[in-house]
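Query form — protein Germ cell-specific gene 1-like protein

QUESTION: What is the three-dimensional structure of this chain?
INPUT:
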Amino acid sequence: MGAYFHLIRFASVLFVATIALSCTAFVTSHWTVGLHRHTKEQAASNDSTKAPKEVAYYTTFHSGYWQQCKQIEEYSKAENCTLILVMIPDGERNEMYMSIGLEMLSILLLMLGTVFNMAACCRPETSPKVTAITAVLAVLAGLTGMLSRMMFITIFRFSIEIGPDDQKPYSWTYGWSFMVAWGGFLCCMVTAISVLHAYTIAVMEKQERWAIEQWLQQSAPLVRPDPPPPVSIPHTPAVTPATRTPVKRVDWNRVPENMIMGYPFCQQTAI
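ANSWER: The structure tokens for Germ cell-specific gene 1-like protein are given below.
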């Protein structure tokens, strides 16, 4: 069982790391980052008769599951944050709610998997069943998390295509929250593989123990136990009339009368 417990402890560490990475990515708003292009008029410095020229400048933005933050002015750290559900088209809000729900379900499954994994480590007698449940929870958590993230990126792309021009980014890419989320997915898959390996080891060891018990039961009648040692019983001599102690009778005729006045039955039985 040494390899089994090593894998279970390793899976516990991976479970905690996966939960930390998934929660960090879920609550942050750097899934996508990019630039918005703006134009402003700039008057000619020397000749005032010329028409002002339009000069382009760029502001940054970043968005996540909950909000999108835009830089207010160029070279400024101030940001204006808006709920992501307000910016998404009405037809895509249900899908966004589903994406958020799947991500929450993934984190919940990871927490349940951690609890079952701890139970498998603390109670070895139920380890195969509990380990199987833990492996299923880890796989389901990874699949639901992957589906949620794919839905979020699809909704973001679709909202860019059909959204107004002033909200369309000039360029965008994936941020560090996106990388953290997929790092959590990788840890989740490694966790599932470790738990499945531990389950295989537990089942094989259980089958080996069962085979050994069956062999011992079948070979037990062939082994003759040693006879018990003889029990010594102490000899007690029999009682015979010759060895019996004689009973002395009292001759009441020789007993003074003043001693037997209170015992009338003795007078009747006196010899």
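ADDITIONAL NOTE: DSSP finds six helices and five strands in the chain.
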